[in-house]
Amino acid sequence: MTVTLREAGEADYPAVAAVMSAANPRHAWTAETLAHETQGLLDHPLRPHLFQLLAEQGGQAVGAALTYQLPGMFHPDRYQAEVMVVPQAEGQGIGSMLADALEAHLESRGAREVLAGTYEDHPRGLAFLARRGFTEALRVFDNVLDLGEFDPAPWAEQARLPDGLRLLSLPELMAERGEDAAWRAYHAAYAEAREDVPRTGEATPLLYGVFRQREEHPGFLPGGVLLAVTDAGEVAALTELYGDAADPGRLNTGLTGTRRAWRRQGLGLALKLAALDLARQRGARSLWTGNASTNVPMLALNERLGFRPQLAWIEMRRGNLAGGGV
């Protein structure tokens, strides 16, 4: 049966999200989430590029491909690329058709570095990327905690913040300091902490206006933003819980981080424990977080708490702007 490719638009978000979820059920998408993420790209002050393709067979969506510039790690010559095929349509050359179309588009854009990836248990995907000149750049593990198996009792002492800090949720800080002041304190801590998160390129500064858009994310939980706050209203450390698009019994961790001046005082552990308590209160069955293989301190902390690593996502790269490009 003939496969046709066409550029995808807003009306295709349900079909694209369905393909993305079928290709990677560990991290499901909804049309609403895809619309939010896409609009965030289109509205970003850096004006990152976005190109989306849909593959159809017999009137059904069987594959999708995206290439875009990631605002959080922006360079005009760096692109992310994703090629996804629903499992029942694999092995028919659909992925190659989509990849060839992306390749032509990226070549027309003068791309010098392209990032793509797949899971370590997907040899077809790894071989596919290797044939196209990609090599491994970074491994990221999903770490999952079964909340039914977590016992908070042994952690009571570590759950306390040091003197001079209080545990507040974002809404509680807003009630004390006002909405804008609370968000700016949250942003200042987040922007500093994220600079030290392992990634394959240099982090782009996070603008406050862009940061505020996270409150519009379908999975954003204001009460799930937990902050270690000084008496002056400064946020010293933070952790975030997000709802999951496909599983109401699952919560996902955003960033857990501590500002440099406050590190090595147990703030990250205390906030993680507070998040676990909140997740249990909300009736969640599991908590997911993602950590790069090079983020040894956070991997060790999660292991102590009982998180178990899942299969690794292998981020692969072709070209390297840090090394002078292709």
From TrEMBL:
Residue ranges constituting the N-acetyltransferase domain according to the UniProt record: 3-157, 176-326
Domain of life: Bacteria
One matching Pfam family: Acetyltransf_1
The name this protein goes by in its record: Mycothiol acetyltransferase
Presence of the UniProt keyword Nucleotide-binding in the record: no
InterPro entries named among the record's database cross-references: Acyl_CoA_acyltransferase, Bact_Acetyltransf, GNAT_dom
Keywords: Acyltransferase, Transferase
